[in-house]
Amino acid sequence: MRATIVLLPGDGIGPEVVDAAARVLSNVELRFGHSFTLKSWPIGADALRRGDPPLPSSTLEACLKSDAVLLGAVGDPEYNDVSREQRPETALLELRRALGTFANLRPARVWPGLESDSVVRADVIRGLDLLIVRELTGGIYFGEPRGRTDDGREAFDTMRYSTTEIERIAVVAFESARRRRKLVTSIDKANVLESSRLWREVVTRVALRFSDVRLQHQLVDSCAMLLVSNPGQFDVLLASNLFGDILSDEAGAVVGSLGLLPSASIGGKGGIFEPVHGSAPDIAGSDRANPVATIASAALLLRYALGAETEAATIETAIGEALNDGFRTADLASDGMAVTSCSQMTQAIIDRMGRNVGGH
Hints:
The chain is α/β, with parallel strands linked by helices and 360 residues long. The protein is built from twelve helices and twelve strands.
């Protein structure tokens, strides 16, 4: 296999975790006989400091020509008070829209041995394995009109969805559920929002095409409560852009750390694969970041963008073994436990990949 993979390290701990994932992808190259072209491009605050916009045209062009994009993180407190067009996070919205990646898949699982790291009781979350399917290019993050009044005393955003947007993300959720436990829970606020009433109507119609998959509807506030009190009842959670954004971060607390959660943004050109966590500027450059989410995102890249299921599974198995063997980055280490650095965790995963590949 030959593939061009664009690396977007970005800000904060982004360069460290992307470098970790790139090491893993290079190991996949070696062990499976593939050829990956890996090249880094600026984005976010990194691009702004170079005098470019958050998403430089050269970066976007490289992404459009690639087979897949692996992104670290964007965001820097230095740019908190600038205009929307100059905020690092704007690059993400522009990139998602340009590549047409309307579906964001966010798996959340509790790895064996990490039950005590969750804010939820171990017996409640043991064996948890759910998938959040988030609509990514519509909703309140993109809806118009938006802005502020001339006197600056009022601001407004628009929650807007079309039937087409809802239908296509619902299909992704039902198809994903078919490969899992065949249950879709659609999240909305249909008791208050008109856009949610349309959401519920369309999802219900789509469900008729998937008779083997069960559909249930859940209001977003009650779902947030159930996600910490009884998360095992869920399989695939289908949510709008805003609701999916919030619930997936809550899922990070449930499984133990945002540093464990990967994501895949698919549906368009290639795909964007990135950890759910932010740029964490307070620990940038200290080798303390947890690389698991980004390495797991590289596994999703292999699975969804390149169709390399065996290679993806090899990475995921190695992650589980490293965690089961007691390797813990600072966000996962309990009192008295030895803390594993970012580079040490990466090497532990690579070492276990070698054990699982067999004759390759």
